[in-house]
Amino acid sequence: MRSEPRHSRTLRPSAEHVVAPLDETPLGAVDAVDAVDTTSAPRSMWAEAGRSLIRNPVFVISAVLILIILVIAAFPSLFTSQDPNYGDITASNQPPSGEHPFGTTRQGYDVLARVLYGTRTSVMVGFFTMILATLIGGILGALAGYVGGIFDAVLSRITDIFFAIPLILGAIVIANRADSMNVPMVILVLGVFGWTNVARIMRGSVISVKNQDFVTASTALGANPVINLVKHVVPNAIAPVIVTATVNLGVYIVAEATLSFLGVGLPSASVSWGGDISDAQPALRTQPMMLFYPSMALAITVLSFIMLGDAVRDALDPKARKR
Predict the structure, then answer these.
(1) What letter does residue 55 receive in the DSSP assignment?
(2) Which DSSP string corresponds to 105-118?
(3) How far is CA 196 from the centre of its chain?
(4) Model's pTM, two decimal places?
């Protein structure tokens, strides 16, 4: 059998060298890569923040703790049948028992009842002080940042004056001058000296937002300045203020406890964590748990609000949000 000459053989390309023509490329390959879902609307900043918060374990833990604290503050009688203002001197300094799970104080008060009912006082003072300080600081900061000029300069100098006065020191001075202190008076005093931080943050946020294109377009279309501020500027500038207000709530709770601890806050007849911590000092060596329970309740409450504020800040900050 005669073999064919080498030069007459046909070289067949292997499968790995075969290149399909451009016109034979499947149409679905390009379409699948470039496909974009145009049916769903883009999420807003608040929707993205809510989605990020739900996935954040810090937010979930702090929210659960705060929910428990709020339930205790609203319905303390569900967790104890003891009267926090009833002191039985014959039951002084008793150890924990079935009737008194946390024991009793020197005056015969039930420690558990004092801690539970003290939650209502501390949360009430902190919550309403936060609202008052946020309203004062938010309004002044928004006006200063939006109006600008001499108005901004005057409000900024007033803010600097109040900012130079420490919160606790200013509250002590006013409390010593007042005839009597109660919950509304403590809220008013703390609110008067606690709005400066909110005002500064609100002013800076408004200044950055008022120069945005959508605000300029609204102004060019003849929008009223007040409506423009309320409808367009404030909603887009309030995110950092919400974070600050959440963290400040814990600060105000600590401030109220400090004033009561020093004896210039709520009267001794009121149930307060600060007052109970002050009363437990003489028995620190013999009965340290009397000091531990109100201190731990105060620490957990403040830590919960600080954790919540950190989680909200991470959710509202586009740079910190995980993609």
Answers:
(1) T
(2) -TT--BHHHHHHHH
(3) 17
(4) 0.79
Give the list of residues 6+ apart from residue 159 with CB closer than 8 angstroms, or none: 140, 141, 144, 196, 199, 200
For residue range 95-139, list pLDDT tens digits in order. 888 788 888 888 888 899 999 999 999 999 999 999 999 999 999
Tell me the Ramachandran region of residue 211: left when phi exceeds 0, alpha when psi lies from -120 to 50, beta otherwise.
alpha
User: Which is nearest to 289 in space by CA: 96, 54, 24?
Assistant: 96
Tell me the C-alpha distance between 69 and 117, whole Å. Answer: 11
The confidence score (pLDDT) of residue 46 equals: 66
**What are the structure tokens assigned to 126, written together?**
């902190």
What is the spatial distance between Cα 168 and Cα 190, in angstroms, rounded to a whole number? 8
110 beta partners: 104
Output DSSP code: residue 214: H
Q: Nearest CA to 102 among 287, 296, 290? A: 290
Local confidence band at 27 (pLDDT 50, 70, 90 cut-offs) = very low
Distance separating alpha carbons of residues 301 and 261, to the nearest angstrom: 17
The CA distance from 291 to 196, in Å, is 33
Share in percent of the chain as helix, strand, coil (round to 5) = 70, 0, 30
User: Can you say whether the dihedral through the CA atoms of 76, 82, 88, 91 is positive or negative?
Assistant: negative
